[in-house]
Amino acid sequence: MSKEIVKIPLPKSNVSKSLAGFLIALFVGAFAPRAILYVARRVFTQATREVFTIVAAGFITDQLLKLISGQKRDS
Fold first, then answer.
1. How many domains does the chain have?
2. From CA 56, how far away is CA 62, in angstroms rounded?
3. Confidence (pTM)
4. Would you say residue 2 lies in a domain?
5. What is the pLDDT of residues 14-68, one digit of tens each?
6. Residue 75 lies in a domain
């Protein structure tokens, strides 16, 4: 069994090239923004989660130090 490479004929006329370009632009325009938004949401969610974790850890550490040292709270 030999594998054959399938060659897709490229459009030769200007109308065919324009139509192919339009279809490619339509496909990219339909799916690229969704992919970019998905990645941006994932990155933003992960970064926000990490920031909140660091802030919470700092707050808990501060409260534990105050509790251990016996200082009065500022509230």
1. 1
2. 10
3. 0.46
4. no
5. 888 888 888 888 888 888 888 888 888 999 999 999 999 999 999 999 999 988 9
6. no
